[in-house]
Amino acid sequence: MQYDPIKRALGSVFNRNPFLRILFYRLLDLLLLRSWHIRRELRLWKKSAPKGAAILDAGSGFGQYVWRMARIHESFHVVGVDVKQEQIDDCNQFFEQLKLGHRVKFREADLTQFLEPETYDLVLSVDVMEHIAEDELVMRNLCKSLKPGGMLLISTPSDKGGSDTHHHDGEGATGFIDEHVRDGYNIEDIRVKLFKAGFNHVEALYTYGKPGSMAWKLSMKIPIILLNKSKLFFLLLPFYYFITFPVTFILNYLDVMQIHTSGTGLMVKAIR
C-alpha cells in the first residue's frame, strides 16, 4: 500500500493557506494516536527543559510536530530536517507566514550523514526509523548530536504487527505501508541498539494496545485502503470521520491512559 501519494494529495488541499494548514495539524493531533503519545511525552519533557532549548525533528515531513514544539515555549528553537526538498521549501514558507522563521528552520538532510555534535536538547523521531535500513548509524549520529543529558524520543512500529505485515506463499512478506524497510522493532532489540549507539538510559514502552489498534484501523487503515481504491473517497472523508471520530477519540484516550504488555507501536526515550 502506497502511503506517500495519499499524504501528498492531502497536503495539496490543506496547504493552500495557513488557516487550513493549522486545521490540518489539529485534525492530525486528534486522529493520530501517536500524536497523543508524543504530546504527553513533550509535556513531561517541558517540565525540566532548559530555557532556549534547541530541538531537532529528525524527519519533519509536513512540519506537524515542529509546529507543536515551537508552541511549547516562545524561547525554543526548532530545526526540522527531511530528505524531501519540496517539503523543506513548503515548511519554511509556511513558518515564515506564521512569523516563526526567526526560531524555526527546515533543512534538507540525510540522517545517515547528519551530525551536529552536542547541539540539541531534544531530538524527535516520529515514524522514521522503520524507513531507514542503516538505523544504527542514524542512532549514533543522533546521540552525538544531543547535548549530554539530552533526550531522543522515538515513535515507531513494533514487531507485534506494527507494519501490518502479511506473508503470502511464494511472494514473501508485504506490509500495509510499502515504504517500511522492516516489519517493526522488537522492544529489546531497539533498546540494545540505542545503548550500543551511546545512550546511557533507555525506556521503551508499547503503544497501540487493543484500543489503539482498533483506533488505527478506524482512523487510518480503512480510509487509506478506500483512498487507494478511488480518489473520489476524498469527498466522503468528512462524513466518514464525522461518524467514526467519537469512537476513535475514546479509543485513543484509553490507549494513552493504559500501560500495555504488548502493542503494535513503541514509544522510546533514550537519554545521552
Account of the 3D structure:
- The chain has 272 residues and is of the alpha/beta class.
- It has one domain: Rossmann fold.
- Helices cover 45% and strands 20% of the residues.
- It contains nine helices and nine strands.
- The chain has helices spanning 4-14, 18-31, 33-46, 64-70, 85-97, 135-145, 187-197, 210-229, 237-257, and strands at residues 54-58, 77-82, 104-108, 120-126, 146-157, 166-168, 172-174, 201-207, 265-271.
- The chain has a seven-stranded mixed beta sheet with strand order 3-2-1-4-5-9-8, sandwiched between helices.
- The longest helix is centred in the last third of the chain and has 21 residues, at 237-257.
- The radius of gyration is 18 Å and the shape is globular.
- Residues 166-174 have low confidence and may be disordered.
